[in-house]
Design a protein that fits this description.
This protein is of the alpha+beta class and about 400 residues long. The protein folds into three domains: about 100 residues, Arc Repressor Mutant, subunit A; about 110 residues, Trna Endonuclease, Chain: A, domain 1, CATH 3.40.1350; about 70 residues, no CATH class. About 40% of the residues lie in helices and about 15% in strands. It has 13 helices and eleven strands. A six-stranded mixed beta sheet has the order 6-7-8-9-11-10, with helices on both faces. The longest helix has about 45 residues. The radius of gyration is 32 Å and the shape is elongated. The N and C termini lie far apart (about 75 Å).
Length: about 400
């Protein structure tokens, strides 16, 4: 079941982001399935974090999590382990992958609608200008439509008032590529695809410039073009030219191609849209090649982490396989080490790793939880654990 949250009119006062993102989709069935183990307090904190994420349109700084969740620092320490599994910790911020995907989708739709509206206005303007030009040409050639007087041409005489180059307008609007254009574009794509690094847009762009220069190409940054889709001029991030004069433009975008990037690239003979991603296959959008430029990172294997002596390898493998069966695999080293720390915490409380993992699997929890209703001191004594000697002789003891 899909529940669409419509933000109130008061949200408009929070800035342009709210005008661009008017709704948020919340799939109730999926949400309840993923959060069955949360308490009422944890539910409230999780929803507040998601709403703030959508409202601001960006990841949440870690130092603001407790404040956004309306919790004191003491309460936040208790609920953080349960909420951490729904986010990706990049060191400074918490990211929510599903919300990031929804944000990208909404922004793409809004961009396309805006571009379509502007194109419609431009088309009407062009038709009006064409009508005015046609009337002027008729007056110049002696055509008097109001009184029905027309000039006649001899059948053997070629008309001089006709456009002999019917494709002139098309060629100027959509310049035909040079014969080597596609080959040159593919060469540039091979230089950039999967070879760039950098956490910011500037670092990513510098990495692309270094790669192109290393391939022996002359690089021009911020190449000016007359149109970017809104009637204003723009600049292509990078343009390189081959020996035949073919220009190949490269626009560097984050997660998906921007409409204005595709329009700017269309001003040169050929071009590429390079995304700061490594998980995207090469494809074309509106005739422009789209590639992933980020260095492909090796997929993390949670079975490769170093385990403490008190955690059996077979037990850890069982927990990893269970998470995979839930379609909630452990994707990062931080997630794996976090689970081990949780087991250590329960171990200090008197629960063995096997008791915690077996209990969590039996209840199909995504996280690790100790058995409820069982006091640690009532658990079976671990005969394989060596008891520590008493630090002092109890009072009244007589040998």
């Amino acid at each position: 079941m899909l529940f669409v949250l419509i933000l109130s009119n008061r949200a408009a006062s929070y800035g342009a982001i709210m005008a661009a993102l008017p709704y948020m989709q919340l799939y109730i069935a999926d949400y309840l399935a993923d959060t069955m183990h949360l308490s009422a307090e944890e539910h409230g904190a999780y929803l507040l974090l998601m709403f703030n994420y959508w409202q601001t349109g960006k990841p949440i700084p870690k130092n603001r999590l407790a404040k956004i969740a309306r919790l004191t620092n003491e309460r936040w320490v208790d609920v953080e382990p349960s909420l951490r599994e729904f986010f990706c910790d990049n060191g400074d911020e918490w990211m929510h992958l599903r919300i990031e995907e929804d944000l990208a989708s909404v922004r793409e739709k809004l961009t396309k609608k805006s571009a379509a509206g502007k194109a419609s206005v431009q088309a009407r303007r062009s038709r009006k200008e064409a009508d005015v030009q046609t009337k002027q040409e008729r007056n110049l050639t002696g055509v008097q439509t109001d009184v029905g007087v027309m000039f006649e041409h001899d059948a053997n005489t070629k008309a001089t008032n006709k456009d002999t180059d019917k494709d002139l307008k098309t060629d100027l609007t959509h310049p035909k590529p040079f014969p080597s254009g596609r080959e040159f574009r593919d060469f540039v794509a091979g230089v950039l695809e999967g070879r760039l690094s950098g956490g910011t847009a500037a670092e990513f762009c510098n990495s692309a410039v270094v790669a192109l220069q290393a391939a022996g190409l002359d690089v021009c940054r911020e190449y000016p073009v007359p149109e970017r889709g809104d009637g204003c001029g723009g600049r292509i991030d990078i343009v390189v030219t081959d020996r035949n004069g073919v220009r190949c433009g490269s626009e560097l975008d984050r997660n998906s191609p921007r409409q204005k990037s595709l329009l700017k690239i269309g001003a040169v003979e050929t071009g590429i849209c390079v995304l700061r991603r490594s998980d995207i296959a090469r494809h074309t959008e509106q005739g422009i090649l789209v590639i992933g430029g980020a260095v492909r990172q090796k997929k993390f294997d949670p079975l490769s982490v170093d385990l403490p002596d008190w955690l059996p390898e077979t037990l850890w493998h069982e927990w990893v396989q269970f998470r995979q069966a839930l379609r909630k695999p452990i994707r990062t080293e931080q997630g794996a080490n976090g689970a081990i720390r949780e087991l250590e915490k329960f171990r200090q409380q008197g629960f063995t790793p096997e008791q915690v993992i077996r209990h969590s699997i039996a209840n199909e929890y995504q996280g690790l939880f100790a058995p409820k209703g069982v006091r640690p001191e009532t658990l079976l004594r671990q005969v394989n654990t060596v008891s520590l000697p008493d630090s002092a002789i109890p009072p009244g003891f007589r040998g």
